[in-house]
Design brief:
By secondary structure, this protein is α+β, with helices and mostly antiparallel strands. Helix content is 18%, strand content 42%. The strands form 3 sheets. A 6-stranded antiparallel β-sheet has the order 5-8-9-14-13-10. A 4-stranded antiparallel β-sheet has the order 1-2-3-4, with no helix packed on it. A 4-stranded antiparallel β-sheet has the order 6-7-12-11.
Length: 194
């Protein structure tokens, strides 16, 4: 077996698979194809940095567009929108890296918030925040959460006609519920029907 070395720092690189190696250097950790030159590795790093910046700019532009729509239509909330398609509902947060300042308790940073009412007596409450202390949550019913394109959170309600039973107050019926860690943020969503 031939010992590979990292093209960036010269440390030993371990094979990840038949084509990829990973640097063992404590300050480097670069992964690349076997045989990559230093120049190719630097170019690849720069491409990844530019892509990340471009995606972040897209997220911020979509965030600003959603916020302008909410403000222009006198709707409460920030950094969150929704789209309905047949029996499914997509609630989205354009930019999970947003910072709308500290929460009222000071225990977290506000990322997104929205309460809305739609047809069929359907309503939802969304709260996304970045806690100061690490939290790990993962519960969901009738929903699927994903992150796409550099930090957009999508929460898909699988069936808007679902009935998960009465809420704790008994005044509404739950349609979907999510409390989930996504990266460094917590997504809390309740969809209900009066």
């Amino acid at each position: 077996m031939v010992i590979q070395s990292c093209p960036l720092c010269g440390s030993i690189a371990l094979l990840v698979d038949s084509e990829i190696q990973a640097c063992t250097g404590a300050r480097c950790g670069h992964r690349c194809k076997i045989g990559t030159t230093k120049q190719e590795a630097l170019f690849e790093i720069e491409e990844k940095r530019l892509l990340k910046e471009r995606l972040q700019k897209e997220r911020e532009e979509e965030q600003k567009s959603v916020d302008n729509h909410l403000t222009g239509n006198s709707l409460a909330g920030f950094n969150a929108g929704w789209e309905r398609n047949g029996n499914t509902l997509l609630i989205y947060v354009p930019n999970m890296n947003a910072d709308y300042g500290p929460s009222s308790t000071g225990k977290s940073i506000k990322v997104a918030n929205r309460e809305d009412m739609m047809d069929y007596g359907l309503q939802f409450t969304l709260n996304v925040y970045r806690p100061h202390n690490q939290m790990d949550r993962s519960t969901s019913e009738n929903a699927r959460v994903s992150v796409i394109r550099g930090g957009r959170i999508n929460i898909e309600i699988l069936d808007i006609h679902e009935d998960l039973g009465p809420s704790s107050t008994g005044k509404t019926n739950l349609v979907a519920h999510v409390q989930q860690s996504v990266g460094d943020v917590i997504v809390q969503l309740t969809v209900y029907r009066y």
